Fold these 3 entries.
Entry 1:
Amino acid sequence: QVQLVESGGGLVQAGGSLRVSCAASGMNFSRSMMAWFRQAPGKERESVATIDWRGGSRYPADSVKGRFTISRDNGKNTVYLQMNSLKPEDTAVYYCAAALYGGAHDNYGMDYWGKGTLVTVSS
């Protein structure tokens, strides 16, 4: 069974930094596209960053460009999201997601999801 387990969330002061991690198991991690999404209360879930199996990254959310960096370590089956210069508007539950090659995909283009980790940025 595929599992995605996020860690590293917590409370951080505005302007600070935080790195969240996602450990994957039960899947071909090295041939998957990984992504981070986030969802604040009352808001729609949005794609924050994606990274393909070759390390190519994209940041669909304009609000995080220049501040967030996605990376992956295929040897550890882990994807990371480094978040710098955090703002209160970044407060959300951050979800790790995976898209498998040839997978059916959901409305977000993903096949598997983690349970999320809460990031709270105080002012």
Entry 2:
Amino acid sequence: QVQLVESGGGLVQAGGSLRLSCAASESIFSINVMGWYRQAPGKQRELVATITDSGRTNYVSSVQGRFTISRDNAKNTLYLQMSSLKPDDTAVYYCTAYSFGRGPTYWGQGTQVTVSS
């Protein structure tokens, strides 16, 4: 069972940047897909970005061009670089590791990102 711990959230002004990190308890080399979700106040949790073990990425349209998901297998860490942040990006961000055939299975505790205007 993979344990995930997010960090890097905080308060930032609109237009600023943050980098979220997700440290895994074990090697992520063999985890095919990892991703980031977020849940804003009053909204459902939504998928933000995914990345495969080969480096293929996908993003929700609202963050395309502003966010970059990456992974460092040697450090067992998943990242989300967020730039040009908007108040609508305010949410709790969660990292996740997928299980084959099941989708997101392992979750971090979440880290709060608040973007002020």
Entry 3:
Amino acid sequence: QVQLVESGGGSVQPGGSLRLDCVGSGRTLDHYAVGWFRQAPGKEREGVSGIGANTATTYYLESVKGRFTVSRDSASNTVYLLMNSLKPEDTATYYCAAVQDPWRTVTEITLRDPKLYQTWGQGTRVTVSS
């Protein structure tokens, strides 16, 4: 099973940017769909973005469309979440998760459903405040 480690979180002012990294080890992420989720204290975990093994398949939470971009780099075995124009409501712990997608059949529904993922990272904290 692949192991995941997130990094890139931190504290920024509204309107700022962060790039979150999800690095896989033990297996290539090329054959996995990877999702990004976030959870704020006292709130439910929600799917933010995701990308299939087929990179043409992506998902974005409506509130982050146009601000966040998910991508992957095979050479570094990393999936990225670039977050621009950050808002206070983006404050949360962000997690990446992976599910095997060997035949590249994952759908948008799969990407946003946390129950479908097999492996989770430890999370990275994002704080957006002035």
